[in-house]
Amino acid sequence: MSVNSNIREAYDDGIKNKIGWLKNSVVLAVLVGIALSPRLWISTRSYPLVPIFNGLPSIPFPLDYLVAAALVGLLGIALFSAQPRKYLIGSVGVFGILFCLDQSRGQPWCYQYFLMLGALSFYSWRRERGQQLETALNTCRLIVASIYFWSGVQKLNWEFVASVFPDLMSPYLRRLPINIGSGALILSALVPLIEISVGLGLLTRRFRNISIALALMGHLVVFLLFVPTRRNIVIWPWNLAMLVFVLILFWRERGTSYRDILFARRHVFHLVVLVLCGLMPAFSFFGLWDSYLSASLYSGNISSGTLLLSEKVRGRLPSQVQDFVYTSTPRSFLNVHRWSSSELNVPAYPEARIYHSVHRAVCNYAEDPDDVVLSISFRRRLFELEPRTELSNCGDLAAAK
Question: Label partner for 69 (CA 20 to 30 A): which of 20, 170, 208, 285?
Answer without folding.
Answer: 20
